[in-house]
Every structure is written in structure tokens, then in C-alpha cells.
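Re: weekly structure request thread

Next one in the queue (270 aa):
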Amino acid sequence: MLDLIWIILILILTGIIAGFFAGLLGVGGGFLMVPVQYLLLVDGGIDPTYAIRIAFGTSLAVVFPVSCAAAWAHQKRGAIDWNAALPIGIAGILGGFAGGTLASHLPVEILKVIFGMLVILAAIRMVRGTSASSGGTTRSGLCIWTLTGIIAGLLSGLLGLGGGFILVPMLLFIFKLPIHRAVATSSACILLFSIGGIAAYMFHGAMIEELGRGFLGYIDIFQWVLLTGAMIPLSRVGVATAHRLPSERLKQIFAIMMFGIGIGMIGIFP
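Done, posted below.
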């Protein structure tokens, strides 16, 4: 079992790295947080069945304030497309709650395999897909916006991630947003997605008496404080970096990160 000081250092370092990529790529940062949290919880004696749900729930709880900071930084640059962000994000609240509810009942192995395959396919699609439009505001029907939000929100709540890993490619290839605008709009949507997921993990986790003190449902308060404190400042650095990188380079970085997420989630957990 790791000493407390090592646990603190690992969580802070994880928050620093995840926060940077959250701002850079318009994702929640859960792709890094979830595996680290899970391994630390299991090392601390938490049953793996509960540990994976705590990692998902805590990750989403961290995602909310971090996404608020990232979205604010993007908004100051006028990069968020609110015509897409509001309907997608509001629909994603319901999807997030449904996803968190499913995760509270589905076997861990099913979650890992489905998630890994979806993310790998999305990464391949991004690498092989056509370039996104360089246009400005996107306009579409309410039905497609709603469906997009429900799908991304569902996966966000189901797997404890912000949802940007699936939403950014959708904004690129369905709505034809340029990459910088897609990343910024994703950040705004993610903060809404996380609300539904957080509610589900708090509700279902509150019924587990074995968790005891230090938990708010499936949310680990200790991990939440350390990760959030480390991530918020670095998310702003990530945002600034994103707006300095060429579009094609940003797409390449995002695709590589997504491929790593998929491989990791299929094979990292015991």
C-alpha cells in the first residue's frame, strides 16, 4: 500500500497533466484520471467493483469546475459556438444521468471493452476523415443537436469522462466546425454533461453503506480536492496552447490521445 505522501503527489501530478490536456483538447481529462484513481483506490483496499465507479464519479465531479475554467478561457477568445453548445449540452445532462445510472449496474468488463472500441474507432475516423470547414457559426436542426448531446452525454456519464473524446469528432465531421472552435464548444458542452453524471453517481453511491466517510455517493472527496486544485490552473495553460497550435497539429494530437485512451481502457484494469 502506498504512503499518503505518495498518493498526494501522484494525484497532483495526474491533475497537472490531465488539466493541460483538458484545456488543450476540449476533453474532461478523465482519460488519465480514471485509470490512476482506480489503481490508487484498489491499492487502498477498495473493492474493484466500487473502485471503478468511484473513479468514474470522482472524475466527472472534477470535470465540472475544470470545464468551467476552460470554457471561460475559450469564451474570452470568442471561440465557443453557443448555437451548438447550448442544445447539445442541455440534452447531454439527461444523457449523463442515464450513463451514470447504467455504470452503477453494468459489469466493469463490458464498460471497458465498449469504451475502448468506440474511442479507437473515433481516433481512426479523425485521422482518415476530411478536413473540417473553416466556417464560423454552425446551424442545424434541433433533433440532430439533441441526439448528439444525448449520445455524448451518455458516454460521458457511463465512463466517467467529459465526453469530448466523442463530441469533438462529431463537431468536426457532422457540424463541420474548425478544430479550434470544436475544442472550445466541446468545453462548454462538457460542463453541462457532467451535471447529469455527477447526480447519478451521487444518487446511486449514496445507497452503498460500505463506502463510509470521505465519500459523497461514488465521489471521493479527498481525490476530488487534489485533482481539481491541480487541474484548473493547467487547463488555462492548455487553452492558451491550443489557440497557438496549427489546426492539423491539434487534430493529430487529439487522435493520438484518443487511440491511447482506447488501448488503455481495454487493457489497463485488472
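The two ends are 17 Å apart (CA to CA). Residues 48-76 form the longest helix (29 residues).
Next request, please.
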